[in-house]
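Final report, section 2: Outcomes. Of the targets proposed, G protein-coupled receptor is the one most frequently requested by collaborating groups, and we therefore present its record in full.
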Amino acid sequence: MYSQVYVDPVVNNIALFSQVTISLLAYIFNFILIYIARTCSRREIGPYRILITYFAISDLYYNTMHFIVYPIPEMYGNAYLMSGRGMFSESFGLGMYLGVYGHVFPILIFHFVYRLLAMKYPHLLAHFPLFFICLMAATLASNLLCYRLHVHCNIPIQMTIRILGPAFCLCVP
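The predicted structure is given below as tokens.
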């Protein structure tokens, strides 16, 4: 399921236990947040519930990708390598993880823009469906952009493998 990350098997077991525990807690808390946002919110909150739900679903997606890929950053001097040690460890999995990592930024930006509009220009909240469509488009664009950056910038070329091979025990993918 997961490849060995550390030489010491005890450290590997602790890391895997921590990964599973943190993932389960993230699922529990995000489902609680979704439940609260969908059922227990007062009417005055309005479409803000949708943003909170979208944020929680986004975090569930991020948590799932992190659990599946289990990315491990490795640094040797100035060299940096991100490798996936989970069930989905190849380059496509790492690209998906990096895409998910980048999609939270538009969500946070739109979240704060919504709060600004709600306080300063509440009449503009009548256009919330358009606002939400823009949020989903920006999230998708950010996800795809981060994935494409991985595909074009993070795949090692032959020169990199030749130079850094000894530092990475000739295990560069």
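The mean pLDDT is 81.
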